[in-house]
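Researcher: Structure prediction, please.
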Amino acid sequence: DFSEAVVIASVANNSNAAQIGLQPGDVIVAINDKQVQKTSDLEFLSRQRRRLFWKLSINRKGQIFNSVFGG
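Model: Predicted structure follows.
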């Protein structure tokens, strides 16, 4: 159930989101194994502390996959 989730509406060409493979309609389920239910969760987790790498758990058309990026 994704009634409370962060859904990617669009992805700009050459953006960080495009570079890590996000697509419109993707649902961000978790960041660094912390559940994301709304955009404020996403903002809060992204400000926590600088990380070398980030792990996004994404639901795309019912399949969950992870994308790791950073550096």
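Model: The chain has a mean pLDDT of 84.
Researcher: Thanks, that helps.
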